[in-house]
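Form 12-C: Joint structure prediction
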Amino acid sequence: MPTSRPHTYRPDTPSHPPVSWPDYKSNVGRAPHKPFVLLPQRLGEITGPLLGEGRVGPNDNDLTLGHDGEPQGQRIIVSGRVLDGDGRPVAGTLLEVWQANAAGRYRHDADRHPAPLDPNFTGVGRIITDSDGRYSFTTIQPGAYPWRNHDNAWRPAHIHFSLFGTAFTQRLITQMYFEGDPLFAQDPIFNSVRDPKAREAMVAKFDLATTVPEWALGYQWDIVLRGKNPTPLEEEDDDE
Amino acid sequence: MSESQTTGLQLSGLQTTPSQTVGPFFRHGLEWEDGPYVVPEGTPGAFRIEGTVFDGAGLPVPDAVIETWQADPDGRFDHPDDPRGAVRWKDFRGFGRSATDPDGRYSVLTVKPGPLPVPGGGQEAPHLNVSVFCRGMLVRLVTRIYFPDEEEANTADPVLTSIDDPARQATLVAEIAESTPTETIPLGYRFDIHLQGEHETVFFDL
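Section 2 - Result
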């Protein structure tokens, strides 16, 4: 049966940090040493879980809700678009976000930073993109926090993002940073991305148009998932 | 992963947003109650795949999250990009997610996927695609779980046979495991993941 070959996704290795990045201390004992084996993209790689509405509750796009009171800190709105590598919107896709509170403390048993937990902030959100690939959520500005990677090490303020796109190949977990953070220069995780333009692409920009008067500061951040290769021609198909 | 080869291709489109580590504190963000259930409990023929994630020193990794993606027992996907058409099989989600426990263990409940046709001929043996995220890794690691009781299909699988070293190949094949009498959900297979070291699991460049 003559069918066109399925789409595959083009390489994007230069955007990403290297597998081995010893400046990040816990990478040393965990990064694989052996070279990766090429996995051709076939049916299981060009498909993936299409997780949508069923995974999101009514208040999941507002991290300031769901508790007895309002959380401490600066209220912000983060919004942007999820696009593929050709600039096409990725509609109806799930974003999962999590973050520290305003004091730089995560709601996690292993977080030993002596900063206060906020009883009114859990720091977890889920959002589905609209037909234009747009997402938006309300939260509070996360604080920076110290860690033990090197002497006087502090993580720049960030929000963790997890995205699926439409294919196993497009799966992405990343972090969004905030414009002008003085902690960038000493952070080995931020600087593990070697291309300055790609680093810049992890930084959200303050946006007055997104800012809601007398309510919340606005930030814009677009996310680009791996793009498809050009459509293969039918003539190129292997004959039986 | 040659940078010079790939940067040229990238000029034709937007640059992918870089990957960053999942960090140590992902649990409240990524854990779902139904995460480990590729199929619901009670699905006929369902079994667990369980394993431990180890670091280079052979210590368990308690802050990893494992995700699986697979075809249904007929080798189909409920996905529009499958050129054969999207097929939904019962309550099959195809996707599993399990964060490791303090002993580095993960577990998913699933059914065995069917083989997949390869364009141009041949078949991929039944397998699960696996993503590994953990503190310390800045990028996703991709591996596969194959089944030890699919010897014939494994011998013809184009991905397994692309790996010359039999010992390396073997890191992608699960072991048959027996449940203890107290376990209500049958344990089918064990698949440990070694991030680094003598028994390092094969990871893929996708």
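Section 3 - Comments
Residues 20-194 of chain B form a domain with the Protocatechuate 3,4-Dioxygenase, subunit A fold (CATH 2.60.130.10). The mean pLDDT of chain B is 93.
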